[in-house]
Amino acid sequence: MDTCKSITVSTFNVKNIKSNTVGVQDVLEKxxxxxxxxxxxxxxxxxxxxxxxxxxxxxxxxxxMECIIMPTQKPRGYGGSAVxxxxxxxTRKLQEGSDRITCVELPDxxxxxxxxxxxxxxxxxxxxxxxxxxxxxELLVILETYSSSHAVLMGGDWNxxxxxxxxxxxRMLIKFIEDNSLILTKK
Length: 187
Known about the structure:
single chain; globular
């Protein structure tokens, strides 16, 4: 007899895991998978995510993944993305995307599922539209790679408005959603 198990996926912009661990633990109580943005950890600190809840494993990226910042020279934390998942769920950690995108595969789901935690560039950056489009291009590569064989779920902090588009990034995101026939959830 086939059985079907649902999973609960949540997304949370933590804005500093060091000061919001209790909030993350509360979300994990109701979730099987958490798509996390802005953990504000550097590469040498990422193991802290594994200690939040012992029944959860993690796949995470930090802003200094490409160019390591030494602990003695690091500024205040910023950015970062992660996927925290119940150890009862079979997952495979994927390396796609920059530090703004962290993905895992759930190969035993039907259909197989790719979950992506996305943290899009903030509006205050100098080359904001270029950088924003760059991350959308990374997401497009993920969709092109996996959408023929997997369902792809992306969640996170889009730093844009879906409902009241007012600038270039809003329009870029809406065009990306329309061009790729993506579906927005209501929750």
